[in-house]
Design goal:
This protein is 45% helix and 14% strand. It is an alpha/beta fold. The strands form 5 sheets. It has an 8-stranded mixed sheet, sandwiched between helices. Strand 9 and strand 10 (338-340) form a beta hairpin. The protein folds into 2 domains: 25-154 and 342-393, no CATH class; 159-315 and 397-517, Rossmann fold (3-Layer(aba) Sandwich), CATH 3.40.50. Helix 2 (39-64) packs antiparallel against helix 12 (359-370) and helix 4 (126-150) packs across helix 13.
Length: 518
Amino acid sequence: MKKVNKKRRKSLKLSHGKPFSLVRSPGVLGLEIFNNLTHYKDFSKPFFTASRYFNSVEYWRSINSNPFERFISLSQLFGMNTDLLRRGLFSTFQNVGDYFRKDMTDMIHGLINTFQFNNSKDVETFQALIYRKFKTFELLTQALPQAVLDSEKEFGFHFERCNNKKIAETVRFKLYRITPTDKGVKTDPTKKPVLIIPPYVLGANILAFLPNQNKSYVHSFANKGIPTYIRIQKDIIDNEPVQLMTPEDDTNDTVVFCEKIKKIHGKQVTLNGYCQGGFFAVCNILSGKLDGLVDTLITNVAPMDGTKNKGLKGFLNNLPTVYNNLSYGTKTLPNGNKIADGEIMSWIYKLNSIENETPIVSLLKKVAMFDFKGNKDCSVNLTYAALNYWLSHEKTDLPLEITRFSYDSFSKSVEQNGELPVRLFGEHLNFKRISEKNIKWMICYGENDDLVEKSSALAPLDHIPVETTSFPKGHVAIATSWSDPDSKYALDKRFGKRKGRGPVLFHMERDEELYKKQ
């Protein structure tokens, strides 16, 4: 074994007087980035999983399918994959080129500043530039992974701490009442209650992003004294009824919980769904099973007509018909039950936005968060860490029938008469029923949401009048940035040019409106 050069163990005194160890070379640090960060794992792991599912399904198809038709389908799939590869590589090279051009500019300025012996604090010398680079890489390989793991303590509900009371449960779900995090607030049982339906794909914890930091969608209601309830799905791996759950089961369990809440408070419930949870909340109401239990509806970034989601719909349309099938993302459990692999479902969204989701592009995004001139903090923000924790650790598998129900809504559009392409209890579902039952509906959407596009969220407006509120940013901003009561678009205020109401304000004013009618 070669002896380590002792000179390399010495610390270098940089222009700002801080020591920095140069034991590790940039190449070693670069290797550590790929060893410690999960960009390539997050992208490659679902690729190999999807390949395994694909080979398994194709083995059985090869026995019964026409070889010529199969060859045509495989050729089309190869063409689609080639296009994805082209888009991914082009974006990667473009982003790498932009990064190095910026670095070269900084390096030239650093050399000039060094040779000019400029000691101003606002000037970055070449030595300071090198220090910043090493510091950024160390932060990415050490501080960031640890901060992400540490954020788990602050992120989400943590029902095991018994901060929120379990009110009821079925074989598939638990119903919790959310306790305010504001110690000066007590839940007022005379106020109108709200039941929040989380998305299946994103998981429930995103709706309690950072409760102790005032960034939690559910707590933005609870901290106003509103009786706030949330439906939590039981673990799918350990509960067979969840594995076999159907949309009808989803509806029936919602009925059970709404009956319980109405009995406690003596008032009809506001049903409040986020993303996929919003779509199911609407379908539950349209089934007629919630008549007399729900008189108000709130949906946030919910796909009401998946075919209007041009990005994802275009991706699915490019797939050869034979491969546009849930069997290629289906996991078989030891007990023989089949469920939808949540990792594959998430990966599909990555492929749809391949330009921004390749491992190197994802890495450069993180580098840009910390590697900029004048960054003296070199620490990881809790919000950023918690968001990364959610992205890395909150992928959940889905009941197959629930997935198929959502999938059908992306395959066929809502009809001109307002009828949805899906059925519940064998009955048709029509948006117009909400108006007929005088249910007040608010739709909240994200202007820059590339997961559930604006046109998809606002599809009901083609058939019935619905109040709408626009929020800046993307899909989870309502549950994160704007759940902060001090934010510009706080959920309990009016904002924007149209002075739209946030969902919390909408609920409170709806409560006052119904009280005056009594």
